[in-house]
Design a protein that fits this description.
Number of strands of chain A: 14
GO molecular function, one term (chain B): iron-sulfur cluster binding
Strand order of the largest sheet of chain A: 12-11-10-13-14
Function (chain B): This molybdenum-iron protein is part of the nitrogenase complex that catalyzes the key enzymatic reactions in nitrogen fixation.
Shape of chain A: globular
Low-confidence stretches of chain B: none
Number of helices of chain B: 23
Number of strands of chain B: 14
CATH class of one domain in chain B: Alpha Beta
Radius of gyration of chain A: 23 Å
CATH superfamily of one domain in chain B: Nitrogenase molybdenum iron protein domain
Organism (chain B): Thermoanaerobacterium aotearoense SCUT27
Structural class of chain A: alpha/beta
Oligomer: heterodimer
Family (chain B): Belongs to the NifD/NifK/NifE/NifN family.
Mean pLDDT of chain B: 94
Helix content of chain A: 40-55%
CATH topology of one domain in chain B: Rossmann fold
Shape of chain B: globular
Largest interface: A-B, 82 and 89 residues
Radius of gyration of chain B: 24 Å
GO cellular component, one term (chain B): molybdenum-iron nitrogenase complex
């Protein structure tokens, strides 16, 4: 398409973010037997269910207050009360996580007040927990929505009693496969942890022939209550996780550490060493072996990616981690882009790749314009990048959210040494596939 | 799961009685008020009585509904597929983001025309815009879009906060038109308007007829000019149909709106006939086209072999032209011959399989015909956002009471503004030759088997119970419930988006559909759900 490169102040083209309610529902799904409820118009719920279902290929149960004109004129509290009563009676959750939408926020419905009122009148029974967060789309992004919902869960439920010797992990918007890998590492190290939220065993449930509205996984309320008693909180990904960790620090003096998502050898090292430092547990030889195998793989295949130029885009925490991964591999990142504005993030990423263009308030059209001027060899990002990949004839390594056009990826971790090894395999072999596809027949190579 | 104490009694009953009891059981498990309301949305087809269904009323809060919003209907469904309009969502980022390439309305770039369909344009409203108003940002975004992309037409679609804070999008559009010399159309389709995406269809139709249709002239009219309405080219459906129609000798002036261009829509009033596929999404425009420009319309169905044949023959009768008659029969014969061996193979493998169909627009109706063609049976069918006329036929329209939510959706009526392509007497004469049901849609219910179940605004709970009780061989629905019922062991396919497959229209499409049903139902992996040590 012909177009002029122009500075844009008002127009967003091909965004690198979506809205808070999606992140809020994502967070709720990682809480045991929780029904995420969206207070607002039903389109919001319909859309985020569609997007999450397409990404995870799993059932995403969520309810809505189903606003129409009457609610935006006279207030939506009546619908909220009706909705809660119906949810309790039909879907029987242990927890309800309520997030708001643009319309509910703009008209100013008092959600926490309504819940207190229903609690006082006995409409909400003692044994059902409710937590709420304010999540209009016109503030932040889906990452903010996730962060706000987890923060609310912590602030609503966490308590202080006696020390539990555990650590808290706030893992951000990782896939079920990633969470499974993090749990495996913790087990190898003999560390007891509370992970909030935990979508493994929820969004990667096995095929059994049976239906369960709530799958067996998810962080339980008693685990969240116990988070005030932990030794420390480890935040994996600043943007999605720091706010709840700060709350735990303020409320119960639980110290926290912010780490990048453990993708790439140096990021995983940081994670493992931090775990060891906090818990005083030694790093088992088993992990050292995994690390050694990863280093071996990276050496075996280094020629396929060394000095390639890359653009990385998507959610802020994953972009930061992938930039670290690229640095480990000797891939030159020219662009690191996200749509969820954060000056802190920009500073961090800029320090990692000082020569790259780093922006946290950007979109994919910007990247397209830059590729015309200063091209790259490969893309790391979500499915929305496939059109750029096609137009500029580039390999696209699919990482992050959303991945809509490939199946099964969410089952395979990219965190930890093992997950990184799998990403390394994909990186090298994707580039080789690309090279083979481009080579004329007489230059196709069999041996390397 | 509903406990049954008297299985024997159920066995003795007729399917009608049995299913009536079943839906009674399902709705009784709700709280009282919900139960009362939901009972009016579930009907077991019983020819011995006059039956009605409740539809197009607000969803019960807290019920896990599959419904979307007005913006989804206007931008997502009706306008979104127009490939050369630069669709600009005025609102926070989510709304635009979720309609970014998420319907499979395929469209081909054309020389000399813009092609914006793969992009998402948004004003990305922030809190300060909600506090101080978003008009400045909207104007700025239009200007930037113009400078970068040079569109001929920009479409503005307003989402929830825009209506609440009162941005005057029409005034901004007018100013932009004057200053930039381009066309700027607007739809105020804030998500809370109406009770489902259906409100957005209505609002989009108003914009189509007020601002687009009739604004350009068709330079070289032929006697065989037609429009295809309610067709969004999911998986390429319209390409197969266009091909058939062109072989017969028709010329397609415009498609509303699959693979369409602005100029074609603007000339649609010069067609001799419109054929309507999806009755719900755009019948409003057809009614207004007939009033304003005298273009009659015919409800057709080209999903399914027998339906396609019938539709083609009825269209031929309308034109009553020897060339059209002859070519119609020739095309039917050729196409049938082409698909027969492949279709026979699948029919053998799908004989007697039962389907549940929950899919919006007119699909829950159309796909029943196709399922029948391949030897399958529909035991339950439901819509998300239909109105009573989609179930009970257009004859019910005068009886439908206007609900409060209809008042916000302006309904326009028109005097004839232009000399129609045919004189009115000729149209009446042509219409009189047609069987009534083609001009007056009969709705889905009359075509369903005795004992089958019809559901309006279906939801998770009801679906789960029905699947457990009726054990269908396949569940045909959308993405939101595809994976959950698959996990129950029921093969599922998406009929909104065809699961990356299609086209499913006309003759070749029927074979594609049969192939996909076979792969879903007879997939060897179903045998592996239970481990061998548990068998």
């Amino acid at each position: 398409m012909e177009c002029n490169n122009t500075e844009r102040k008002y127009l967003t083209v091909n965004p690198l973010k979506t809205c808070q309610p999606l992140g809020a529902v994502w967070a709720c799904l990682g809480i045991h037997q929780c029904m995420p409820h969206s207070h607002g118009s039903q389109g919001c719920t319909s859309y985020l269910r569609m997007q999450l279902t397409r990404h995870f290929r799993e059932f995403i149960p969520t309810t809505t207050s189903s606003f129409s004109e009457a609610q935006v004129v006279f207030g939506g509290v009546g619908n909220l009360k009706q909705a809660i009563r119906n949810i309790l009676s039909i879907y029987k959750p242990k927890v309800i996580g309520i997030s708001t939408t643009c319309s509910a926020e703009t008209i100013g419905d008092d959600v926490p007040g309504t819940i207190n009122e229903m609690r006082a009148s006995g409409d909400i029974p003692e044994d059902v927990k409710v937590f709420t967060a304010s999540t209009p789309s016109y503030v932040g992004s889906h990452v903010t929505g996730f962060s706000n919902m987890v923060k609310s869960a912590v602030e609503t439920f966490a308590k202080k009693s006696s020390p539990n010797g555990k650590i808290n992990i706030i893992p951000g918007l990782l896939s079920p496969g990633d969470l499974r890998e993090i749990k495996r590492i913790l087990k190898i190290m003999g560390i007891d942890a509370i992970i909030l939220p935990d979508i493994s065993d929820v969004l990667d449930a096995p095929m059994t022939g049976e239906i369960h509205l709530y799958q067996k996984g998810g962080t339980t309320i008693s685990e969240i209550e116990d988070m005030g008693n932990s030794i420390a909180t480890v935040v994996l990904g600043r943007e999605a996780g720091i706010a709840p960790a700060e709350s735990l620090k303020e409320m119960y003096d639980v110290p926290y550490e912010v780490l990048p998502l453990p993708i790439g050898i140096s990021n995983v090292d940081k994670f493992i060493m931090k775990l060891s430092e906090i818990t005083s547990k030694p790093i088992p030889y088993e992990l050292e072996e995994e690390r050694g195998r990863l280093v071996d793989m990276m050496l075996d295949a280094h020629a396929h990616w060394y000095n390639k130029k890359a653009a990385v885009f998507g959610d802020p925490d994953i972009v930061e981690a992938i930039v670290g991964y690229a640095n480990d591999l000797g891939i030159n990142v020219l662009y690191a882009l996200t749509g969820s504005y954060s000056s802190e993030w920009e500073k961090t990423v800029k320090s990692m790749v000082p020569d790259a263009y780093v922006s946290s308030d950007n979109d994919l059209w910007y990247l397209k314009e830059q590729l015309d001027k200063k091209p790259v060899d490969m893309l790391f990002g979500n499915s929305h990048g496939k059109y750029l990949a096609k137009e500029y004839d580039l390999p696209l390594l699919r990482v992050g959210f959303p991945i809509l056009d490939r199946a099964n990826l969410q089952h395979f971790p990219i965190v930890g040494y093992k997950g990184t090894a799998w990403l390394v395999e994909r990186t090298g072999n994707t580039l080789l596939d690309y090279k083979d596809a481009k080579s004329p027949e007489h230059l196709l190579e069999l041996i390397m | 799961m509903i406990e049954r104490n008297h299985t024997q009694d159920y066995m003795m009953e007729s399917p009608v009685e049995k299913n009536k009891k079943l839906i009674e059981d399902i709705t009784d498990s709700y709280p009282k008020k919900v139960s009362k309301e939901r009972k009016t949305h579930l009907v077991v087809i019983d020819p011995s009585e006059e039956q009605h269904i409740m539809a197009d009323v607000a969803t019960i809060p807290g019920i896990m509904t599959n419904r979307g919003c007005s913006y989804a209907g206007a931008k997502g469904v009706v306008f979104g597929p127009v490939k050369d309009i630069l669709h600009l969502t005025h609102g926070p980022i989510g709304c635009g983001y979720y309609t970014w390439n998420t319907r499979r309305n395929l469209a081909e770039p054309e020389e000399g025309y813009n092609y914006f369909i793969k992009n998402c344009f948004s004003t990305n409203m922030q809190e300060k815009d909600v506090v101080f108003g978003g008009e400045k940002k909207l104007y700025g975004a239009i200007k930037e879009a113009y400078e970068i992309f040079k569109p001929k037409v920009i479409g503005i679609y307003a989402t929830c906060p825009v209506g609440l804070i009162g941005d005057d999008i029409k005034a901004v559009a007018k100013r932009a038109e004057e200053e930039l010399g381009i066309k700027v159309i607007t739809v105020s389709c804030e998500g809370y308007k109406g009770v489902s995406q259906s409100a957005g269809h209505h609002l989009a139709s108003n914009t189509l007829i007020m601002d687009i249709v009739g604004t350009e002239e068709l330079e070289d009219p032929t006697p065989y000019d037609i429009n295809i309405f309610g067709e969004y080219n999911i998986g390429g459906d319209v390409w197969l149909v266009k091909d058939l129609l062109q072989k017969i000798g028709y010329r397609v002036v415009s498609v509303f709106t699959g693979d369409s261009k602005y100029d074609d829509l603007a000339k649609a009033h010069r067609a001799k006939l419109s054929i309507l596929m999806c009755h719900r999404s755009i019948n409003y425009t057809n009614r207004m086209m007939e009033e304003k420009f005298g273009v009659p319309w015919l409800k057709v169905n080209y999903i399914g072999i027998s339906s396609t044949i019938e539709s083609l023959r009825e269209m031929a009768k309308f034109f009553d032209d020897p060339m059209i008659y002859e070519n119609t029969e020739k095309v039917i014969e050729e196409e049938l011959k082409k698909i027969k061996p492949r279709l026979d193979y699948y029919k053998e493998r799908l004989k007697g399989k039962k389907a549940i169909l929950f899919v919006g627009g007119s699909r829950a109706h159309h796909y029943q015909d196709l399922l029948k063609d391949i030897g399958m049976e529909t035991i339950v069918a439901g819509y998300e956002f239909a109105h009573r006329d989609d179930y009970e036929g257009r004859k019910i329209i005068p009886e439908i009471k206007e609900a409060p939510h209809h008042k916000i959706l302006d309904t326009y009526h028109f005097e004839r503004v232009t000399e129609p392509a045919y004189p009115q007497e000729k149209i009446e004469e042509m219409k009189s030759k047609m069987p009534d049901h083609f001009m007056n849609y009969e709705g889905m219910m009359v075509h369903m088997e005795e004992g089958s179940i019809v559901i309006d605004d279906f939801n998770h709970h009801e679906t789960e119970e029905l699947i457990k009780a009726l054990k269908p061989d396949i569940f045909l629905s959308g993405i939101k419930d595809r994976y959950v019922f698959q996990k129950m062991g029921v093969p599922s396919r998406q009929i909104h988006s065809y699961d990356y497959s299609g086209p499913y229209s006309s003759f070749e499409g029927a074979v594609n559909f049969a192939r996909d049903m076979d792969m879903a139902i007879n997939n060897p992996i179903w045998k592996e759900v239970t481990p061998p040590w548990k068998k």
